[in-house]
Amino acid sequence: MTWFLCPQSKASFSVKAGTILQRQEPTGEVSHILNKKARCLMNRNARFIHPETLWRTRPQAWASVRGSALYPNLFGTVRFYEHLYGVVVVTEMEGLPNPENVCSSPVFAFHIHQGGSCTGDEADPFADSGMHYNPQNCPHPYHAGDMPPLFGVNGYAFSAFLTDRFTLSEIIGKTVVLHVSFDDFSTQPSGNAGAKIACGKIVRRITRC
User: Fold this and answer.
1) Domain count within the chain
2) Could you read off the pLDDT of 65-86 as tens digits, one per residue?
3) Is 209 among the domain residues?
4) Are 68 and 30 part of one and the same domain?
5) Which of 13, 49, 95, 126 is positioned for an S-S bond with 199, CB 3.0–4.6 A?
6) Same domain? 105 vs 191
7) Does 91 reside within a domain?
8) 33 & 14 share domain
């Protein structure tokens, strides 16, 4: 039996062989998913899944991120999960450049860009990623694609946050871009974040049951 919670109704549901059997009283315990059918069901209903269970489900969309020629060892994954209150974005990166001294914090600006390609030219290897995704024409840092920066720890970074600035369908085909420097959250149009050092295209993940 698999349990998961619905934040909206504060109720829990029991799942067996991929079928919702009955509505139960709230419970704080969420067990491991027992079979593929249950995983598919929970993925389809990700907007109702408790955060404890979210990490065990497959994302509805993701991006495989790779560094530019100057950063060949930089790579990572960005996963997007539909949630009741928006979209959960989970990011892992490895091979990030380390600061030259202890007073230089390894903080990297991180955004969704409106372009659909991680190609470019010698001056900007990811020029075709375009500008920040900004359908409402807002000032920075209120673009829909403006996200929290990544904090590097010995070349590794992990981030997870919830946003309602975009839906999954709105970002499919767009790109996630990592910059060499931090975002000052004030300079227009993109926070004076420096060169683009890594990029990945967001694609929808198809789950088959």
Assistant:
1) 2
2) 999 999 999 999 999 998 888 9
3) no
4) no
5) 126
6) yes
7) yes
8) yes
81 closest CA partner among 46, 38, 133? 46
Matching residue, tokens 């598919």: 40
Instruction: Kindly report the three-state secondary structure assignment for every residue of the chain.
Output: CEEEEECCCCEEEEEECCEEEEEECCCCCCCCCCCHHHHHHHHHCHHHCCHHHHCCCCCCEEEEEEECCCCCCCEEEEEEEEECCEEEEEEEEECCCCCCCCCCCCEEEEEEECCCCCCCCCCCCCHHHCCECCCCCCCCCCCCCEEEEEECECCEEEEEEEECCCCHHHHCCCEEEEECCCCCCCCCCCCCCCCEEEEEEEEECCCCC
CA distance 194 to 203: 26
Q: Is the pTM of this model over 0.70?
A: yes
Six-digit token pair at 124?
């900007």
39 with 71, same domain: the answer is no
**What is the rounded average pLDDT of the residues 32-48?**
46
Provide the domain limits for residue 195. 61-204
Rounded CA-CA distance 107/183 in Å is 8
The pLDDT assigned to 209 comes to 47
